[in-house]
Amino acid sequence: MVTLSANNDILARYQGLSKDHLKISGTVAEPNARGHRNDTLPWFWSMDVARDAEANDWMMEFKASKALKDQWEEELELICSEAR
Description:
It is a single chain. This protein has a domain at about 55-84. It is built from 4 helices and no strands. The chain has helices at about 10-15, 25-30, 50-55, 55-84.
């Protein structure tokens, strides 16, 4: 993201990943199990992805474009089926 010249807000939000972040943790699998009281999760487990997706215009544009693409694929399939 640094190479892409992301601004400081984005760099603060999306931190670097290390191999330790990618290990499977019992905290995620069974958060109420014994022995996990002091475990901490990597930063990406606490992100509010749903809110981010709703707040961004590009996500709405993506959903509209995908719906249009799906509609055209369905239309093509129907036309090919009718032609057969």
